[in-house]
Amino acid sequence: MKLCRFDEDRLGVVEGDRVRDVTPALEALPRVSYPLPRLDPLIANLALVRERIAAVITSAPRRPLAEVRLLSPVANPGKIAAAPVNYRKHLDEARGDPAIHHQNQVGEIQRVGLFLKATSSLVGPSEGVAVQHPDRRNDHEVELAVVIGKAGRNIARASAMEYVAGYCIGLDMTVRGPEERSLRKSVDSYTVLGPCFVTADELRDPTRLELSLSVNGEPRQKANTRDLILGIPELIAFATSFYTLHPGDVLLTGTPEGVGPVQAGDRMLAEIEGIGRMEVAVRAAR
Ligand code: MN
66 φ, ψ to 5°? Predict the structure, then answer.
C-alpha cells in the first residue's frame, strides 16, 4: 500500500495517478496526551489504520494526485538518522572535491557511523526547499529513506528487516562548509520525504532499486541501492547498537555520486523504483 499525507493533514492511498482520501481511517489512532510518546502515531499504529482503511476505501473520494499538496508521509519522526557516505563512488567524489569536503575528514561509514538531522528540517514535496546561505554551495542528495515500524535496540542484522515499516524517497539537502554535518543538514526544509510511504509488504526487495535525481531536467544522480556499502540490515544493527529506534524514526541510507548545487528557482525531480517520483521546488529562504 502507498500512503500519502496531503493538503490539510489528510490521509490518502495512492493508486496510480489518483489518491483516495481515507482521512476517516485516522480515527483509529489512540488519543495522545502530554508527555507525547517518542514515536509517530500513524506508523506505530499502522496495522490498525490499515484495517480501517480497508473498511472505508471503496467509498473514499478520489482526487488526481497532481492536484494535491503532498506533505511528509511521516509527520512526527522522533529522529532522523542518516548515513554520511554510503556509496563507494560518492566517497571518492567527496574526498576528491574540496568544495564538498571543506577540509573535513571524509571517513568510511564503518568508522564514522551515522549522524542526526533535526526533525524540524522535515518537509513534504509541496513545501519545497528554502535555500539558506545562498553564498555557499547547497547540494541535493537523493536517498532511499527507511521508516522504522517498531521499537528496537541492539537489533541483529538477521532480524532487522522485521523492524522496517516501509520506504519513502528522501532528500538530504546540505549546505557545504566547515561546520558539523548535523548543523549544515538541519536547516529548515533540508529534509524532504515523499511522495508517499510504501509499506514494506508492497516493496519486498529494497536491495536493488534504481534511484535518480535531475535538476531542471538535467540528470545529476543515477545509481542503484545494490551499491550501498552498508545495507539496510547493517545500518539498523549499527544504529541500534547505540540507540533505540522507535516507530516512525527515519533512516536516510546515504546518497550516491553526482551530488551538486541547487539555487532558488530550480526544480528537482527525484525518483526511486517502486516508490514513485517527486518534484520539489527550490526557493530563497526569507
Ligand atoms: Mn546524505
Answer: -65, -15
- List pLDDT tens digits, range 6-58: 999 999 999 999 999 999 999 999 998 999 999 999 999 999 999 999 999 99
Q: Which of 217, 133, 216, 224 is nearest to 178 (CA)?
A: 133
pLDDT recorded at residue 101? 85
| Pairing label, strands 174-175, 2-6 | unpaired
Assign 133 to helix, strand or coil: coil
* Ligand 1 mean position, distance from CA 143 (Å): 7
> What's the pLDDT tens digit per position in 64-89?
999 999 999 999 999 999 999 999 88
CA distances from 11 to 41, 57, 285 (A): 13, 11, 28
Structure-block grid coordinates of residue 240: 541500534
Ligand 1 centroid to Cα of residue 16, in Å, is 29
Through-space distance between the first and last CA atoms of the chain, rounded to whole angstroms: 37
Domains and CATH numbers, the chain: 2-67 (no CATH), 80-284 (3.90.850.10)
Distance 128 CA to ligand 1 centre (A): 18
pLDDT tens string 131-173: 999 999 999 999 999 999 999 999 999 999 999 999 999 999 9
Centre of ligand 1 from the C-alpha of residue 200, in Å: 22
Q: Say how many Å lie between the CA of residue 258 and the centre of ligand 1.
A: 12
Distance 190 CA to ligand 1 centre (A): 11
Cβ–Cβ < 8 Å for 270, 258? no
Whole-number pLDDT of residue 241? 97
